[in-house]
């Protein structure tokens, strides 16, 4: 083997790789544990990068940037492979991970009507579009909407043994909802304990198949289901959905504080219905910048802002969420950015252990 240009060593190669700080990671690639292989052979750097979040939407740009950097600083030709390695994150020490599920992301809102279910559906589909194995659990027992949003409202889950259920496949992801088990117009007239029992059955009796991210669409509020989920289930992180309206923000803040109290990391805030595009200008119907101010106030990330959009609403009603219906459109690309940011925050952000422990009194 001949010596590489300028006698480049592996340590020099690793040093250059660690000097590259991607904004979604916030630290060098070596420090982030993302360098799976780094070798110098002749005039070529052979590098394998494995990031802790799905990277399909950014892998080409990342490879180009790294290749240019290695060539400029070391004079090497780069043979780069960019992939993902999704580990399990955020589960508290007293909670066991669930079979077939690596990470659980709860999508919550303080109040109804802010588009939380639409965000949950498109977030799940965006994670899938980025290359992840994804499941979606519709935890809104009283008002399940995901079967219709995914165009499978007439589906019924199959069972291999009469005890467990196979998830219903839809648009490439694994889904489960109480809506698959009852008629669409049948009301669920249940008290709290029955609702939490139903949630536990839907989660634990579904045969999830190596799901890297299970997105859970929570009902609005901070009641029984939210507390059951956060205290008994190994939730990896939460995404808070709000509109810019002050009334919505008041309730969203309560939801955020609830997750912090039970030591579930808040991955960030999605500001939905942030504006309406009038063609020549934006009309901020529900106010402006509320989600951004809330993110700054609580020290969390603003994952993204989405418009009040007729196509987003229509496609959800038609069973073809916007990420599927118009994958190259602006809204779908925004959802994919939100998905990458949330997953990167889960992999590299502040862990739950760094939050202060707050005792909740039974009084």
From TrEMBL:
Residues 10-70 form the MIP18 family-like domain. SUPFAM superfamilies: Fe-S cluster assembly (FSCA) domain-like, P-loop containing nucleoside triphosphate hydrolases. Keywords: ATP-binding, Hydrolase, Iron, Iron-sulfur, Metal-binding, Nucleotide-binding. One of its GO terms (cellular component) is cytosol. GO terms for molecular function: 4 iron, 4 sulfur cluster binding; ATP binding; ATP hydrolysis activity; ATP-dependent FeS chaperone activity; metal ion binding. ATP binds at residues 110-117. It holds the Pfam family ParA. One of its GO terms (biological process) is iron-sulfur cluster assembly. It comes from the Bacteria. InterPro entries: FSCA_dom_sf, MIP18-like, Mrp/NBP35_ATP-bd, NUBPL-like, P-loop_NTPase, YlxH/NBP35. NCBIfam families: PRK11670.1. Binds and transfers iron-sulfur (Fe-S) clusters to target apoproteins. Can hydrolyze ATP. HAMAP family: Mrp_NBP35. Belongs to the Mrp/NBP35 ATP-binding proteins family. Homodimer. This is Iron-sulfur cluster carrier protein. It comes from Solimonas marina.
């Amino acid at each position: 083997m001949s010596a590489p240009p300028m006698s480049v060593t592996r340590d020099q190669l690793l040093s250059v790789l660690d000097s590259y700080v991607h904004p979604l990671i916030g630290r060098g690639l070596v420090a982030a544990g993302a360098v799976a292989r780094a070798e110098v052979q002749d005039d070529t750097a052979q590098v394998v990068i494995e990031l802790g979040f799905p990277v399909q939407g950014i892998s080409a740009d990342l490879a180009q940037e790294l290749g240019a950097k290695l060539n400029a600083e070391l004079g090497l030709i780069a043979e780069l492979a960019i992939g993902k390695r999704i580990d399990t994150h955020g589960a508290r020490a007293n909670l066991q991970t669930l079979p077939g599920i690596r990470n659980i992301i709860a999508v919550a809102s303080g109040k109804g009507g802010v588009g939380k279910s639409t965000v949950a559906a498109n977030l799940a589909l965006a994670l899938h579009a980025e290359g992840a194995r994804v499941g979606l659990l519709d935890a809104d027992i009283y008002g399940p909407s995901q079967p219709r949003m995914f165009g499978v409202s007439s589906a019924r889950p199959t069972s291999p043994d009469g005890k467990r259920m196979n998830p219903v496949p839809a648009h490439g992801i694994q889904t489960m909802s109480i809506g698959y088990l009852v008629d669409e117009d049948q009301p669920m007239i249940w008290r709290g304990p029955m609702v939490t029992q139903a949630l536990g059955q839907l989660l634990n009796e579904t045969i999830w198949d190596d799901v890297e991210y299970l997105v859970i669409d929570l009902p609005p509020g901070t009641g029984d289901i939210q507390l059951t989920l956060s205290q008994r289930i190994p939730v990896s992180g939460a995404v808070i959905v709000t509109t810019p309206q002050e009334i919505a923000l008041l309730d969203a803040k309560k939801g955020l504080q609830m997750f912090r109290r039970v030591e579930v990391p808040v991955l960030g805030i999605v500001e939905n219905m942030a504006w309406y595009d009038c063609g020549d200008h934006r009309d901020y119907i529900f106010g402006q910048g509320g989600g951004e101010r809330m993110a700054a106030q609580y020290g969390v990330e603003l994952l993204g802002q989405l418009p009040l959009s007729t196509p987003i609403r229509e496609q959800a009603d038609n069973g073809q969420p916007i990420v599927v219906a118009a994958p190259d459109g602006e809204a779908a690309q925004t959802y994919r950015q939100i998905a990458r940011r949330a997953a990167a925050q889960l992999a590299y952000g502040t862990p739950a252990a760094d939050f202060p422990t707050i005792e909740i009194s039974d009084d």
